[in-house]
Amino acid sequence: MNQSLTLSLLIAVPLAIGSVSTTTNAKAATWHPGTPTALQGHWRNKTVNIGKYFGMKKLYSHESVHVKNNRIDASLTQSAGWHLTNTKWRKINNHAYTIKGKNALNELHTGRFTFNKVSGKQVKIYYDGFNIAKGTPFSPYFYRVAKKSLTTIYPHRPNLFK
User: Fold this and answer.
1) 63-93 burial, b if ≥16 CB within 10 A, otherwise e?
2) Which of 4, 13, 53, 153 sits a CA distance of 20 to 30 A from 22?
3) Does the pTM exceed 0.85?
4) What is the pLDDT of residues 100-157, one digit of tens each?
5) What are the strands, taking DSSP E only, across 59-107?
């Protein structure tokens, strides 16, 4: 009987110690308020002649994205576009960021932009998982026009770029 007790303890004690000392290395995603400074500024893609889609010879347009401290405004030249306020962001990997916030046009909806760095100067931009240039004649590659928002560069004309 004494041998079976010793054998049971030899098996049970290491298992108990191993289960108590086991830790998990789960990495929680950290959401930060605002937008990442690495993305702040004015982004756009190449200007394209879209006149043929509207029965005109020449009508040039491009997509534009303004990333500000707590907001993102993205649109075609004349469209309503996408607008997020009260933003939070997290880094997905070395080449991608996700920014989420309230949709300014429909506050019941939360929108999400993802910026994926393609090269040193270009990014692809997704809204709720879809490339914002997909299905359009525009390039999916955006380049930085200015590191600061244009309203910061032209403070004396605040309504110029709204």
Assistant:
1) bbbbbbeebbbbeeeeeebbbbeebbbeeee
2) 4
3) no
4) 999 888 777 889 999 999 987 899 999 888 888 888 888 899 999 977 655 544 444 4
5) 60-61, 63-67, 71-76, 82-93, 96-103
